[in-house]
Design goal:
The longest helix is centred in the last third of the chain and has 23 residues, at about 325-345. It is globular and about 60 Å long. The strands form three sheets. Strands 4-10-9-8-7-5-6 form a seven-stranded mixed sheet, sandwiched between helices. It has a four-stranded mixed sheet with strand order 1-2-3-13. It has helices at about 5-20, 75-85, 95-105, 120-135, 175-180, 190-200, 225-235, 255-260, 285-290, 305-320, 325-345, 370-375, 380-390, 415-430; strands spanning about 40-45, 50, 55-60, 115, 140-145, 180-185, 205-210, 240, 265-270, 280-285, 350-355, 360-365, 395, 405. The protein folds into two domains: about 5-60 and about 325-430, Aspartate Aminotransferase, domain 1, CATH 3.90.1150; about 75-320, Type I PLP-dependent aspartate aminotransferase-like (Major domain) (Aspartate Aminotransferase, domain 2, 3-Layer(aba) Sandwich). The protein is of the alpha/beta class. Helix 3 (about 95-105) packs parallel to helix 10 (about 305-320), helix 11 packs parallel to helix 14 (about 415-430) and helix 13 crosses helix 14. Strand 11 and strand 12 (about 360-365) form a beta hairpin.
């Protein structure tokens, strides 16, 4: 499985850098954290992807999460083809929107009304605007290291690789905008309470990932989410669950099913679009009725609810409703993580591994990982060597030490066993 042929990728990257900033359409794809030339992928099928040089990889990135059935799933492909022949979009309401909305409502009853958008960023940005419009307040609370998309008010205290003294995570975000975003550590309920004691009358929303999956995988402590619900109720704050990444990845539904805590608003994306650009936000009817045209909170989009995206999402969710899907996904993910942990321990590589549903996180350090401050202690040099060792042997992982991995329905015993075997080989190299 030794794969040293990357000349085609090199040529594509060279041309891409002439035409696009950094040669990519999203920064993580530049492979900056692993300091090597990105691989240029062109085809995927099931659990595998191929680069332009013909190298095949077991894929644990899955287009950053949406492809929970695997690449080019026949049902999703058929739905896309069928709808494309009928028309890609119409700029008006369609029955497909109604069908997908109903599927989501049945899976997550807390979403009494839903608005489709084109991306996770649009979903989180719109949810924040709605919370502000509904409450008449300006400030929001987020958690350090979480990533909620690239809207200005959410580029504060997050992991972009840029950090200004006032907390901004990007140039172009104004100081006034940053001042309305309050950042506290994940899993630290006391800090949230202290912040609300000082700022509560001005806070519109708390936005949180029910399980943080943008700083590796960090699971909520038992009292954390119930505590946020209690504090939100006490201070009249809207509790927003950002489930763009984790929604429909752990169970057929969202965080309420997993954690037993009801949010006021929920943001979704990735899985609900079947691999196409689809996002959504929704929640309590009394809040959603403030969205235009019913209410005074404006949000619109020419391609929102586009027919092909809706068709792909319907096909994917219908497959995910089949009995046993999530149990099998969780079992496969657990076996993968246990296998990798076992071979790491065998040669003395420090590794903290966590999994929930079909998502897993690996952190190269001792001890526990409970927030961003502990997550960033991962050994970045060790990760870089691990990443390239795995890639050369045919396993494609996310090219960043704070990114998670995903499994799909199409990953089988063969892929898991091969990945664990390769991991053992790479770990032995790392300790030589």
């Amino acid at each position: 499985m030794n794969q040293e042929r990357f000349e085609g990728s090199r040529l594509i990257n060279e041309r891409a850098r002439e035409l696009m900033p950094g040669g990519v359409s999203s920064p993580i794809r530049a492979f900056g954290a692993v300091e090597r030339e990105p691989v240029a992928l062109w085809r995927g099928k099931g659990p595998y992807v191929w680069d332009t040089d013909g190298n095949r990889y077991v894929d644990y990135v899955l287009s950053w999460g949406p492809l929970i059935l695997g690449h080019a799933d026949p049902d999703v492909v058929a739905a896309i083809k069928e709808q494309a022949e009928l028309g890609s979009g119409f700029g008006t309401v369609t029955s497909l929107e109604v069908v997908l909305a109903k599927l989501i409502n049945e899976a997550i009853p807390d979403i009494e009304q839903i608005r489709f958008v084109n991306s996770g960023t649009e979903a989180t940005m719109s949810a924040v605007r709605l919370a502000r419009g509904y409450t008449g307040r300006d400030k929001i609370i987020v958690f350090s290291g979480s990533y909620h998309g690239h809207a200005d008010s959410l580029l504060v205290g997050t992991k972009t690789g840029v950090a200004f003294d006032d907390g901004r995570s990007s140039a172009g975000v104004t100081a006034a905008t940053a001042a309305d975003t309050l950042v506290v550590p994940y899993n630290d309920l006391n800090k949230v309470e202290e912040m609300l004691e000082r700022e509560g009358e001005m806070v519109a929303a708390i936005m949180v990932e029910p399980m943080a999956a943008n700083m590796g995988l960090v699971l909520p402590e038992d009292n954390f989410l119930p505590g946020l619900r209690r504090l939100a109720d006490h201070y009249g704050v809207i509790l927003i669950f950002d489930e763009v990444l984790a929604g429909f990845r752990v169970v057929y539904g969202g965080g309420e099913v997993v954690h037993g805590v009801k949010p006021d608003l929920i943001t979704l994306g990735k899985v609900i679009g079947g691999g196409l650009p689809v996002g959504a936000y929704g929640g309590r009817r009394e809040i959603m009725e403030h969205v235009a045209p019913m209410g005074e909170v404006f949000q619109a989009g020419s391609q929102a609810g586009n027919a092909i995206g809706m068709a792909a999402g319907i096909a994917q969710l219908r497959r995910l409703k089949e009995p046993g899907v999530y149990e099998q996904l969780a079992d496969k993910t657990q076996r993968l993580v246990v296998g990798i942990t076992t071979v790491a321990e065998a040669v003395g590589v420090p590794l903290v591994a966590q999994a929930r549903g079909s998502i897993f996180g690996l952190s190269f350090q001792e001890g526990s990982v409970k927030d961003y401050e502990t997550a960033i202690k991962t050994d970045k040099e060790l990760f870089k060597r691990w990443f390239w060792g795995m890639l050369r042997r045919g396993v494609y992982l996310a090219p960043g030490p704070l990114e998670v991995g995903y499994l799909s329905v199409s990953h089988g015993e063969e892929e898991i066993e091969a990945t664990v075997r390769v991991a053992g080989e790479v770990f032995k190299e790392l300790v030589r």
